[in-house]
Amino acid sequence: MPGRNQRTGSKRLETIIAQLAVAEAITEELKAVNPMARVGAMDSIRSRAEEIVLQDLIWEDDAI
Fold this sequence. Notes:
There is one protein chain. This protein is 86% helix and 0% strand. The chain is mainly alpha-helical. α1 crosses α3 (35-63). It is elongated, with a radius of gyration of 14 Å. The mean pLDDT is 89.
């Protein structure tokens, strides 16, 4: 069973991914027109979102 921090981190990750996808116009239409471009864009977004969440956790832990 995931801990509270893991659930919070996962929710934050999914929120950031969704926000970045909207900001970068990564749509279902792109998926239909150029699926490989969408996969590449979403991989990039996920990597950046993971870095953001990890940085938030590191700074949060340092503040304690």
